[in-house]
Write a structure and sequence with these properties.
The chain has 740 residues and is an alpha/beta fold. Helices cover 37% and strands 18% of the residues.
Length: 740
């Protein structure tokens, strides 16, 4: 997945006699890599007519590093200098208010002035928003014979789906920059950002994270009021400390109602998609009516006999159908995963909330690459692949830019020698490949990578080899692949395999497992943010002592297994897996929490994307129906470590029971039993459940939330600081819809 979002914009600046064609490349949150920017520029400039100008947009914190790389990285310099007729090449560093913080020319025959750069930047942001909206088709038409009924009561044959704006991380960041431009200094001191649907959560997080990356001290919580269903109860204690992001509107009614009930001025409300350029009660990012050339006001509202599809927050169901609940079972198990996991032997391969060496942020689920080279079955597999798939004429071994891949390359070099074949000419680090002298021979190249997620670095290596060794056959050996989805990894493999017309390259992977999306705010990120917030509130000393210890324990993300990532029982014992787990052959107790989490993550992802699973069992929401995990999952799988893994690996929308009184009632009864019996096996994950409620990863209907978190329950856990503190905070949210 690219770290950049790019598009073409067309506009005229002051003094221009015609429109400029501008290539805009915008960076996301991931760490800047010169190779990735080079690949983006090359692919775009090769496939399209050269633009007049190139604008590269990066967070202000990355500006100096990107500027340095633009002048020192040979491949990037070559890509930037492509097209001698380009007027201007500009690097822009965006500050915490979404405005130009720094700007430098990267060459061109007609450099822009400072005022022209600022004007071009504003125009580029607006055209980028339009590009995203059109490219992802945020304007949805009702199926034949149907009309949509909005919560406001309007009946239309179209609706606006703002969730489709937020497809990739780089696009989310780009939209977040546009939001920052609208709200300006209003973000300072904000305690809570309200969102109308959970689909807006990534955008709210991106707005905060971008402001923080530029040095602004902001740390608001993000809360959904679930469109019209929860707006009546909104009574924020400090209206001047809130902001609101609304996904879409065709009437402006939701913004107006929020402004009234939350006593929030319109300059603190932003609507992403609207049919107006501006409203008194909110800022507007994108005017869909103008963009798509439709007259929303004049749509046919009648359609006698048409089936009515009722809008319910970000999901849609005929006559407001309740969420469909899915119970995980063997039907959702990943084929052959039990055997594959058995290959690890006694080594603990998975790590929770871990930032591998060189990674820019921790991932909820990661691979401890250092353990990989200790697995005998992996080394046996490498030996087999070297004999069966790697040409005997292999002359070079290229490895990914990390220590474990370097070790894997050295191991391959030794094994090739032991096979009696000529020793390769040496090991080449991927980061050094761009500066190598091109080879004209047709000797083989072996590319090794210990751990792969998106495959970006392997794609970069593949591109560089087109220059370094264009005639050489290639073999890719990959240790462990942990992609977001199976389909994403199949695409990665297909791209790496693509060789000259006469043959394909070999791609071999020892172990791959799709584990869902673990970028952005993981459950541990949310927990750290919650603990910081509570400690700032000067909570009771016993709870503060626990919160400080917990925060310290989960702050070390650079050492795999440095501390158990899942909460212990209230008696202090770590969560373990008892015998006979349906997704794993374990005749004895299992203490590897990360392995259990990995199996649950893989099972959930398989339930989401495997089209061979019966449709009514798939864990996949659509525009016309919301799908959740059934509360029965927490009774069927009653080991605390499994329950904790479900709570942390599931997407928040899959634990959102708020729109169903029946599911909320079932979940409330399960939660009460867990909290009341927290000293017994059935309640060993009590602190995990309390954390899920406090961070709002799990939500139940307000009525049932109040019944659950009553005085009697809190009194029963008064002697357990962590339970009492977390549940007391969760109760505050259910009663008052805000942070303390």
């Amino acid at each position: 997945m690219s770290r950049f979002f790019n598009f073409r914009a067309s506009f005229a600046l002051a003094g221009d006699t015609h429109n400029r064609e501008v290539l805009v490349v915008s960076q996301g949150f991931q760490r800047f890599e010169a190779d990735d920017l080079t690949a983006t520029l090359e692919s775009t400039l090769e496939s399209e007519v050269l633009p007049d100008d190139i604008f590269i947009l990066v967070p202000l914190a990355s500006f100096d590093e990107v500027m340095k790389q633009c002048h020192s990285d040979a491949s990037l310099k070559t890509a930037l200098q492509r097209g001698p007729t380009i007027w201007a090449r500009v690097l822009v560093g965006i500050n915490g208010y979404g405005l130009v913080g720094k700007a430098e020319s990267l060459g061109g025959i007609q450099p822009l002035t400072e005022s022209q750069i600022e004007e071009a930047f504003k125009r580029a942001i607006q055209e980028g928003l339009h590009h995203i909206a059109v490219n992802h088709n945020v304007l949805k038409h009702a199926p034949a014979g149907c009309v949509f009924v909005k919560p406001s009561g309007d009946v239309l044959d179209i609706f606006l789906l703002a969730a489709d704006l937020l497809q990739s991380e780089a696009e989310i960041v780009f939209v977040g920059i546009a939001v920052l431009q609208k709200i300006g200094k209003q973000l300072d001191g904000v305690r809570t950002i309200y969102i109308d649907t959970m689909s807006m959560q990534p955008l709210a997080r991106a707005v905060v994270a971008f402001a923080q990356s530029a040095g602004r001290y902001v740390a608001p919580s993000v809360q959904s009021f679930h469109s019209y269903t929860g707006i009546e109860a909104l009574r924020p204690e400090m209206p001047e400390k809130i902001l609101c992001l609304i996904s879409a509107s065709t009437s402006g009614a939701l913004a107006k109602r929020f402004a009234t009930h939350a006593r929030c001025p319109g300059n603190r409300i932003v609507t992403c998609l609207d049919v107006e350029d501006h409203r008194d009660d909110s800022h507007v990012l994108i005017n869909v009516q103008t963009l798509f050339n439709v007259n929303v006001r004049g749509r046919d509202k009648g359609r006698p006999g048409a089936a009515r599809v009722q809008l319910a927050g970000e999901f849609f169901g005929s006559t407001a159908s309740p969420p469909r609940a899915v119970v995980l079972s063997l039907k959702h198990a990943v084929a052959d995963l039990k055997r594959k996991v058995g290959l690890f032997g006694v080594q603990k391969m998975f790590a929770l909330d871990f930032a591998a060496p060189g990674a820019d942020q921790p991932r909820a689920l990661a691979i401890d690459g250092a353990a990989l080279m200790l697995v005998d079955s992996f080394k046996e597999w490498v030996n087999q692949r070297l004999r069966w798939s790697v040409p005997g004429t292999t002359k070079w071994i290229v490895h990914a830019d990390d220590p474990v891949s370097a070790d894997m390359a050295s191991f391959c070099e030794r094994q090739i020698e032991q096979m009696g074949l000529p020793k390769p000419d040496g090991l080449i680090n991927a980061s050094d490949l761009g500066g190598k002298t091109p080879m004209s021979t047709d000797h083989g190249v072996l590319i090794v990578s210990a751990v792969v997620r998106s495959g970006t670095q392997l794609a970069s290596i593949s591109r560089d080899l087109r220059l370094f060794a264009p005639k050489s056959p290639r073999t890719f050996l990959i240790g462990v692949a942990l992609p977001i989805s199976s389909s994403a990894y199949k695409t990665t493999e297909a791209n790496l395999r693509k060789g000259p017309k006469s043959w394909d390259y070999a791609v071999e992977t020892w172990f791959s497992m799709a584990a869902g999306h673990s970028d952005g705010m993981s459950s541990w990120d949310e927990e750290r943010a919650l603990l910081l917030h509570l400690l700032e509130e000067q909570v009771d000393r016993p709870f503060a002592t626990w919160a400080e210890a917990r925060f310290k324990a989960i702050s070390d993300t650079g050492t795999a297994g440095s501390t158990p990532r899942l909460h212990s029982t209230t008696s202090g014992a770590p969560l373990v897996l008892r015998r006979d787990f349906v997704f794993l052959d374990n005749p004895h107790e299992l203490t590897d929490q990360a392995l259990v989490y990995a199996l649950i993550s893989a099972t959930l992802q398989n339930a989401r994307e495997n089209s061979f699973i019966a449709e009514d069992l798939q864990l996949r929401s659509s525009a016309y129906g919301h799908v959740v995990l059934s509360p029965e999952c927490f009774t069927r799988y009653n080991d605390g470590v499994i329950q904790a893994s479900l709570l942390r690996a599931a997407y928040p929308s899959e634990l959102d029971f708020e729109s169903s009184p029946e599911l909320s009632a079932d979940m409330s009864r399960i939660l009460r039993r867990v909290f009341q019996h927290h000293r017994l096996e059935r309640g060993e994950a009590a602190t995990e459940f309390a954390t899920a409620l406090a961070t709002q990863r799990m939500r139940i209907a307000k009525t049932w939330g109040k019944r659950l978190l009553d005085d009697e329950l809190l009194a029963s856990v008064k002697d357990v600081p962590e339970l009492y503190g977390l549940l007391d905070f969760a109760r505050h949210r259910y009663y008052w819809d805000g942070s303390r």
